[in-house]
Amino acid sequence: MRPPIICMMLIACTSATTNDTNPSCTNSMGLVEGEVVLVFSWDDADPSPAAYATVQATNDDEERLTIATDDQGQFSVSLPVGTWRMSATNAQEDCFTADDNILTVDECEVEQTTLQITECFG
Predict the structure, then answer these.
(1) Do residues 96 and 62 lie in contact, with contact meaning Cβ atoms separated by under 8 Å?
(2) Pick from 61, 72, 104, 109: most CB atoms within 10 A?
(3) Structure pTM?
């Protein structure tokens, strides 16, 4: 006698809204890709990648996200739509960006940015 054959079917369902300008867009997030570089007035060298730097992203509601760069100073993060202030510190946390970089994140769009660490504590 043969054992009975049992079949199961899995169905995955998702709920998403689409963006009218980009029908393939199904979320209210945007992507920020960037790099953090070291640029010091006392150093004649070209800007260099800020490996393992910390990037802070803060929106108008004071929500804050922390992102780490890779060994080449690169980072990528999905953020909700809105205006975000971006700043960075080096891995040793003794140097920082003097000015915030203001970005507007739009649905399903990719924003490119470069954060320059220009100042250090005494």
Answers:
(1) no
(2) 109
(3) 0.76
